[in-house]
Amino acid sequence: MATKMMGYLPNDRPAPLQMVILGFQHVLTMFPATAFVAALTGFHVSTVLFMSGVSTIVALLLSKWRIGKFIPLWYGSSFSYIAAYQAINQAPPFSGPASDEILGTIQAGIVATGVFNILVGLIIRRVGKASLDKVLPPVVTGSVAAVIGFGLGFAALDMASANWGIALLTLLVTVLFSVYLQNRGFLGMLPVLLGGLVGYVVAAATGNVDFAAITSAPVFEVPHFTFPIFTGDLVATAIFSVAVMALATIPESTAHLYQISLYVDRLAEDLGREKYNLDEYIGFNLVLDGIDDFLKGLFGSTAGTNYGENNSLMAITRNYSGPVLIAAGVISALLGFVGTLAALVQSMPLAVSGGLAIYLFGVVGMQGIALMIENKVSMFDPRTLAVGSVIMIVGIGGNIGMGGFLPIPILQGLFPQGLPAIATGALMGIILNAIFLVFTPPKAE
After folding, report:
1. Is residue 9 in a domain?
2. I want to staple 339 with a disulfide (CB 3.0 to 4.6 A). Which of 31, 221, 276, 362 is the partner?
3. Which domain holds residue 82?
4. Is 305 buried (19+), middle (13-18) or exposed (0-12) by CB count in 10 A?
5. What is the per-residue pLDDT across 156-165, written as a single tens digit (0 to 9) for each?
6. Spatial contact of 299 and 225, defined as CB atoms under 8 Å apart
7. 171 phi and psi, to 5 degrees?
8. 165 belongs to a structural domain
9. Domain total for the chain?
10. Is 119 among the domain residues?
């Protein structure tokens, strides 16, 4: 007996209770990476959670207002900027715990990143999507998306190694839920949440959950806001070193929008409804990225990017609802104020997060491959082979084998730990593609 196709397109609005549950699943998906970047770089977790929710809501509402459609993307903390943060934090006269002065100096760079992204987006809107496709063809965006997912493979396994039994159980039940509950009603849209709950319960039953942090956390706390500082010796360094990292997030964001557009339109076809063609709004999407960074830089959050993890969640669940993401934004913002709730989410054992990450990061990588297949990228063309292979080897190899940084003695003042592997791989692919555009290779007869 055939089952009814389930799924929500971007402008669809589920019932209120369903929106809350589905929204919490988005928060569960974005929380580990968003909170981890904050903790690693000295930013305040509560502020980062609050601003992640607020900027996501702003981006969604702006897209609905300007183009009449929600662009269903979540804006979390980006890993691409960590090297720049650390370079500033460790440079004289700084070094040590991230004070408000250090954060304010870094925030000047984040604000500049926002302005840079907005300008790039406006330029692309003027010259058109076709021009962008020449600079960022599917072999570039697809390869970058694959690198982002597969390059995080070691990080996922490292988290899982905290307790392999719990991690593998979480992975297994999440995969089984996503496959066997698909198109089985509302539960079929909650595989990651259900898998995470099963892993959490098993971890709690085996004594692997620390409840002390939950009981001792304050019920209410106000996020610690800091503001950008545009004076001081390191401001120019901060603005340049942080803003240049947008070279990593621009192709990443482009890849994510292509991915989500592909899957949204496929669902629309399956449901017999009109396609959304979200990939036509590449320039506007980068403007939204810039607004996200600008807002976060103003109030003390890490620079952002739209999250492949949440894209994976939407692909798995076939739920692309913008109102659900707005509900998730509200929940995330509330996490910044409710200490007990934030502590509850933070209490998820590392092994459970690792089990979920193996699946989610893998899906990000597979979506990059799907993007290239859908756009009929020829793997027999030496040009595409060259571009894709360089991006993947430099990005994945550097991210896994060299700790994320390439020890190449270039611009060491800006990148003391080395060149960021994923960003460098993406930039090398873009340069190679540009060379082929300028010096067109001869066609085989």
Report:
1. no
2. 221
3. 16-438
4. buried
5. 898 899 999 9
6. yes
7. -60, -50
8. yes
9. 1
10. yes
